[in-house]
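Ticket opened by: R.M.
Priority: normal
Category: complex prediction / small molecule

The reporter submitted a protein together with flavin mononucleotide and asked that the result be attached to this ticket for the collaborator who will pick it up next week. Submitted input follows.
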Amino acid sequence: MLGTHDGMTRAYALGRGSDQVAKLKGCKHAHFAWQAPPGCPESLPLYLLERGDARQLATQLSCRQDIAGDGAFSLGMLAEYQASLVARGPWFYRRLFWEAGAIGQVLYLEAEAAGVRSTGIGCFFDDPVHQVFGLKDLAFQSLYHFTVGGYVDDPRLTTLPPYEAASKVPLATPEVVLHSRPQDLKQ
Ligand SMILES: Cc1cc2nc3c(=O)[nH]c(=O)nc-3n(C[C@H](O)[C@H](O)[C@H](O)COP(=O)(O)O)c2cc1C
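Result attached by the on-call engineer:
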């Protein structure tokens, strides 16, 4: 996770449990600090790895997309990969992506609730991501990236209010809404 704070960019790791943190520590670069940030609750396994300006690096790792370097923070989701596939079988590959997507949906909702925005990033260079963090084998694999921050409107996109069609058909059943043509809904 690469975040900007007080004008400095920092690299962090957030584990989903103490087991995972221990495994990650064993796989990542030996020089990483693994320090709990000041004020971080003990129950949150968030660790500072390194200080420095990593904005350009974050952009480059996500296919040179500015959204990865310009936000408040961006992150790559690292899944326990080889061991989980060997233990559970090939079907678990799809499940790992499903889980990363579910975490992404939570980030979309939480960012919105916090008054900022976020974007899933499916385009990234996984080998360079692994090099940056010192991952040398298939124990962990980067599956999905995400960026969170203030938003910039893209005038190329059209935004409609949610459930616009439904709001124009009072008491309509879902079937009516699904099968309505836009011209039928004009008032
Ligand atoms: C899995 C996934 C990967 C995405 N990858 C990128 C990406 O690499 N770059 C980007 O600008 N947006 C990316 N997006 C965001 C989409 O382009 C789009 O902004 C988002 O899905 C909202 O669009 P919608 O309102 O039309 O659903 C991604 C979204 C998802 C769900």
